[in-house]
Amino acid sequence: MTVSSSDGSTSVPNPVSRRRRRLGLGLLAAAGVIASLMSEPGLSGVLGAGLAVIMLAIAVIDGRRFIIPNQLTAAGFALGLVHAAVQQPEAIVPAVTLAIARAAVLALSFFLLCYLYKAVRGREGLGLGDVKLAGVAGAWLDWLMIPIAIELAACAALLVYVLRYIVFNRSLAATQRVPFGLFLAPAIWLGWIGQTIWPALF
Hints:
Blueprint: E1 3-4, E2 10-11, H1 15-39, H2 43-65, H3 70-87, H4 92-121, H5 128-140, H6 145-167, H7 181-201
Antiparallel strand pairs: 1-2
Helix pairs in contact: 1-2, 2-3, 2-7, 3-4, 3-5, 4-5, 5-7, 6-7
């Protein structure tokens, strides 16, 4: 596989750099799995480990291609419903219903934000992939953790955006695209970790 440059020449991707990236992603995935299993024993921890891997995959793909695959969001949502059922085995139906309700509310909120932004600015601010990912957040996180995770993602995206332009000495542009899923996906997993270990701290 070759990559074309701006002057028409082609270059071959460095296989060493590619292996390093893969190694780094593998280490991140392993760290997420271990942290999930340590924070929540049993099946809940296994489901959290699955969430860590899925959110990492979403972050990487959205960061590279500005796309959030439907298969990954569907898998994350399904795991969230199973997690809700496992958390309250004595009240599975109410727990799953509440998770679905949170997902619907959050996804609808993101959709309305997307619609209003496009109506006002004349261009898309959030994609439907972000809307679906918000539904995953609702399925996994409780009402108190949801705004924390969203704020964490937004602040991280803004910080990285500003630092990138400071480092490369570029001017800030309001039309610059930012892959929000790159930041929201890990924030969802971090939010789950937070709400899992929070009761143990107090």
